Amino acid sequence: MGAAIPQITSRRFFLKAAATTAAALAASRIAPARALGANDRISFGVVGCGEQGAARVTGLVERVEADNVCVRAVADICRRRVTHAQGICKGDGYLDYRRLIERRDIDAVLVATPDHWHAKIAMDALESGKHVYVEAPMTHTIGEALALRDAVRRTKRVLQVGSQVTATKCIWQAHEAIRDGRIGKATWAQARVNCSAGGRLSNDDHKSAPTAGLLYQHLAPLLIAMSGPNGEYPSRVNASGGLYIEKDGRGASDTFLMTADYPSEYSIFLISTPANEPNLPERIYGKCGVMDLNMGLKISPNGQISEVRSGNCSATQTCVPPKPARDIAGNFIDTIRGRANTLYCNVELGAATMVAIRMAVESCRQNKTMVWDANKEQVLGGRPVEV
User: Fold this and answer.
1) Would you place residue 28 in the very low, low, confident or very high pLDDT band (cuts 50, 70, 90)?
2) Does the domain at residues 11-164+342-346 carry the CATH identifier 1.20.1250.20?
C-alpha cells in the first residue's frame, strides 16, 4: 500500500506544544470558562481583525440585543486593524492574542486569522476553557486537525468551524431523505467550486489546503448529506489538474479536480476551475433517483427501477422548499447555551473535511493516489511531505 507519510506538523508535536501552553495557562492561574445559563450574556473575543475578522466583529455587534452577546476584546498583530475593530465593538484591543485569551470574562473566542494560525490559537483558547468559532479551513495540516479534534473531545468545549454552507437547511433535509431511502442507495455526490480567473486554489506560500471559499465550503455540506453531522474520513483520494490559465509563477493549480472515496461506499467529486460557466450542478445520485441541491431540495426518481414503484423511494418528482434556518454564528451561540443539540460544522466534521482536502492537494502535487489508514490515522502513499 505504501509507507505512511510523516506528518511534519504531527499530532504528537502539536499536542506537546499545546501541553506547554496549558502549563503556562495553569501557572497564570487562569480560571476555566464560567458555566453559562440559558439566558446569560456570552462575551466574545475576536482574534484576527482583517477584512474577515472585522466583518465578524460587526456581525456580533449587530446581534448584541437579539442574542445577548458582546465583544469585549479584539486582537491582531497590526495596530491599525485593532484600532478599527475597537471602533466597531468599543472593546479592548491587544497586539498579542494571548492577553485576550487570558481574560476570565471572555467565554468564546472567534478566530479569523490566516489559515496557518487557526490551530494554534484555537488550541490555546480551548486549553483556557473557552468555546471556539474558527473560520474554515479549520487547520493548516492533518496533524493539527486531529490534535484539535482530540482537544475538543478532552476539554468538552464547543468548537464550530465557519463553513457557511453547512447552515443551509436543504443539506440537512438531503441527509434525512437519504436516510429514509428516498433515492435508494446514495453512491455519488458532486459540486462545482466557483473560482474566478484571478482566484487561487491555495496559498502556496504556506502550502495550505484550499481555502474556505473553495473546496472546504462544498465538501463539508456534502459529507453532512451523505454521512451525517460528523461526516466521515475518506478511504482513498485522487486529484488532478494544473496551472492552465494563470501563468504567473504561482505554485497552486487554477484547475483542480478531486475524487474522494468513502468507507460507506460512496464517492464525492469536486471541481474548481476558472473556465466559463462549467455546467456541474450540486447533485447527489442514488440507485433510484437524484437529488439537486442548488435551489432548495429537488428529488427526481427513476421510474424504471423496481424500488421506486414498491419501496420507500420517491415515485414522483418532489421539490422541498428551503426552510428558514439559524445562521452558523447563531447555531454556535445556541449550542453554547444548550438550546441546540447539533452544531452545523463540529470538530469531527471539520477534521474529516480537512483530511480529505489535504490528501487531495498532495495527490495532485505528487501524481499519486492517497490512502487513509483509519486505524493509525495516517496517510499512505507518496513521498514525505507536510500534511
Assistant:
1) very low
2) no
Task: Give residue limits of the domains in the chain.
Answer: 11-164+342-346, 166-323+353-380
Length, in residues, of the chain: 387
Is there a shared CATH topology between the 11-164+342-346 domain and the 166-323+353-380 domain?
no
Fold of 166-323+353-380: Dihydrodipicolinate Reductase; domain 2 (3.30.360)
Contacts 24+ apart (CB under 8 A), 2-6: 2/371, 2/380, 2/381, 2/382, 3/380, 4/373, 4/376, 4/378, 4/379, 4/380, 5/362, 5/378, 5/379, 5/380, 5/381, 5/382, 5/383, 5/384, 5/385, 5/387, 6/384
pTM of the predicted model over 0.85: yes
The predicted-structure confidence for 330-380, as pLDDT tens digits, reads as follows 999 999 999 999 999 999 999 999 999 999 989 988 999 999 999 999 999
Measured CA to CA in angstroms, residue 68 lies from 8, 63, 73, 125, 136 at distances of 42, 7, 16, 21, 25
